[in-house]
Design brief:
- This protein has 399 residues and is α/β, with parallel strands linked by helices.
- The protein contains 13 helices and 18 strands.
- A five-stranded mixed beta sheet has the order 2-6-16-17-18, with no helix packed on it. A four-stranded mixed beta sheet has the order 4-3-1-5, with no helix packed on it.
- The radius of gyration is 20 Å and the shape is globular.
- It starts with a strand and ends with a strand.
């Protein structure tokens, strides 16, 4: 374990929830040793004019080692994978590396025979054929298998395909989803649902899921669905950057940003300038209004992107960079910059049970992000990255 001391002084400090009166943070080894005090020894980093944040958490990705490396360049120190596959040895290696973001994963989720995402390309993920379940008994067995493989949480697919230009996809039955939810809870695991329509959202909420990994795109919100989600206690990761691409928009302006362009390989820059465009009749303003209504009702809104495993992939998205785009869209939806930052730090850490990160406090992991300016007033300042710390190891990330 590293035992070096680092003093970050003269910083504006956002602790994951709010700005602090303190201006100094001490890192010792891999942890935050003190906030508001300075050590008599160690390196000194003068952060005058800059803001220190917890490392960002992307609450919806599909990732790889290369993608975890890209994420870290943009201050994303943890990615929460909603479908993927890792061996125990790979997970152990990632946990102690400081050149890539950390990862938590649902491993491979549950879907109906012929259901999403088996209709995409070869229907495999990380070299594994996507599993299907046809009844409650198979759902219970598959959940147990995922837990044994090391899944941190469980993902269920509720997708009939209309928003993805593939209408008529088979979906899991109510009883199968409820069996999966109950089994996961018995194993002490949270359950998150892939939903893109209002009907799927109703099905997920009535089945007792803990969170929605997407937001419905097929119609404006109603008071009834907002109230149902709020009453359930489920969080929502709207993935607004994905929704924008589904509606036919690109992220070309993000790709052209001088704070982004030098840090992304050419193939990911091309991906940002692409789009998905499977549901051009959708309305992004309606989706932003839904986020606003959910937020007003007290629903936890998490920042996530759905950035994909590799390119060619979902157009308009790139690991790391797209989370900053998501923060901008959350502010457009009505969250304050501070609330948007909370949605990418302390809030996902709390909802996913990551007690060691997402906040700046003594004893927490030293996963930190230093940016010039003040993103609590101008959210676009999150891209003014100067330094990222992963477990106390700093990397210079200025462009």
């Amino acid at each position: 374990m590293r035992d070096n001391m680092q003093n970050i002084i003269n910083a504006r400090i956002f602790d994951g929830n709010q700005l602090l009166d303190a201006s100094t943070v001490v890192i010792e080894g891999t942890r935050i040793a003190a906030v508001g005090e300075r050590s008599a020894s160690g390196d000194v980093i003068d952060a005058h004019g800059a803001t220190l944040l917890p490392g960002l958490i992307d609450a919806h990705v599909h990732t790889s080692i290369d993608s975890l490396r890209l994420a870290l360049r943009f201050g994303v120190t943890t990615e929460l994978e909603m479908t993927g596959f890792w061996t125990p040895e790979e997970r152990q290696d990632i946990a102690v590396r400081d050149d890539i973001a950390d990862v938590r994963s649902a491993m491979l989720g549950l879907t109906a025979p012929g259901g999403h995402p088996t209709e995409l390309d070869t229907g495999d993920d990380h070299g594994h054929v996507y599993p299907v379940v046809a009844n409650p008994q198979e759902a219970v067995a598959t959940v147990a298998e995922r837990v044994a493989q090391g899944a941190d949480y469980i993902k269920v697919m509720i997708e009939e395909g209309s928003v993805l230009a593939a209408p008529g996809l088979p979906t899991l039955s109510d009883s199968t989803i409820r069996a999966a939810v109950d089994a996961a809870h018995e194993h002490g695991k949270l359950v998150f649902a892939h939903v893109l329509t209002l009907a799927a959202t109703h099905q997920a909420i009535t089945s007792g899921v803990d969170g929605l990994a997407h937001l419905f795109l097929d119609r404006p919100h109603t008071p009834e669905i907002v109230a149902a989600i709020a009453a359930s206690g489920a969080f929502v990761t709207p993935c607004l950057v994905l929704n924008s691409a589904v509606f036919g928009n690109t992220a070309a302006d993000l790709a052209a940003d001088g704070r982004v362009h030098p840090k992304l390989p050419a193939e990911w820059l091309r991906n940002l300038t692409g789009t998905i465009n499977t549901y051009p009749e959708g309305n992004l303003d309606d989706v932003l209004a839904t986020v606003a209504a959910l937020h007003k009702a007290g629903v936890d809104i998490l920042a996530g992107t759905d950035a994909s495993l590799a390119v060619p992939a979902l157009g308009g998205l790139a690991h790391g960079a797209s989370l900053h785009h998501e923060l901008r869209l959350l502010v457009e939806a009505g969250l304050t910059p501070t609330e948007a930052l909370h949605a990418a730090t302390a809030l996902p850490a709390r909802r996913f049970g990551l007690t060691d990160r997402g906040h700046i406090t003594p004893g927490a992991r030293a996963d930190l992000l230093l940016v010039d300016g003040d993103p609590t007033t101008d959210i676009t300042d999150t891209l003014n990255i100067t330094t990222v710390w992963r477990r106390g190891a700093p990397s210079q990330c200025g462009s």
